[in-house]
Design brief:
This is Reverse transcriptase domain-containing protein. By secondary structure, the chain is mainly α. About 40% of the residues lie in helices and about 0% in strands. It is built from five helices and no strands.
Length: about 110
């Protein structure tokens, strides 16, 4: 499988997030506190002995069970992924502010 990541121009003023979540058309959608807690219970710190593949598998397992009307699962994953990181891994994500990461490229870069 070949993954091509293209550089996207710098974000507009005031926009600093590395992950761009597509617009959600559902009314009254929100991420519940319990779901955030579940994601944060097994955060990835980026330590040498941690397995990033296992982290992505766990994250996908949790987020694949979510279904909200008119909300793409990809959007939910993109919203939750930053909460699954801490320490050096969180810094890694913040360093990608010049790119607009989509779900597939985010996993690819994370596993490099």
């Amino acid at each position: 499988m070949v993954c091509v990541i293209k550089h996207i121009p710098a974000p507009t003023e005031g926009y600093e997030d590395a992950i761009v979540v597509p617009e959600i058309e559902a009314a009254n959608f929100e991420i519940k506190h319990g779901l955030l807690t579940l994601v944060q219970n097994k955060q990835f710190f980026g330590h040498d002995k941690e397995d990033p593949h296992a982290h992505i598998r766990y994250f996908n397992k949790i987020t694949s069970t979510l279904r909200y009307p008119n909300v793409p699962t990809t959007s939910i994953k993109l919203m939750l992924f930053p909460f699954s990181l801490e320490g050096a891994a969180r810094i890694w994500l913040e360093d990608y502010h010049e790119f607009n990461l989509r779900c597939s490229s985010c996993s690819f870069l994370f596993l490099e």
